[in-house]
Design brief:
about 70 residues, mainly alpha, flat, 4 helices
């Protein structure tokens, strides 16, 4: 039995999408982490632009996480 849609995390949804797309299973967790890290990076940038540096620091992921999957030219 699957979880109700509202209870599934963003990470679980990303994993499902990558699995359905046929991504090699060993890459799925890395790409799911990296996808969410990219989004968190965007949110952190918006918080900084709005003057919320401390909040942005809480959201900002480790850039190595993003680079591990997408490379440095994201």
């Amino acid at each position: 039995m699957s979880e109700p849609e509202e209870e599934r995390t963003a990470w679980q949804r990303a994993v499902d999408a990558f699995e359905e797309a046929g991504l090699r299973s060993e890459l799925v967790p890395t790409y799911a982490d990296a996808l969410l890290a990219l989004r968190d990076t965007e949110i952190a940038a918006k918080l900084r632009a709005a003057g919320h540096e401390r909040a942005a620091a809480l959201v900002q992921p480790d850039p190595d996480l993003v680079d591990a999957a997408w490379g440095e030219d994201r």
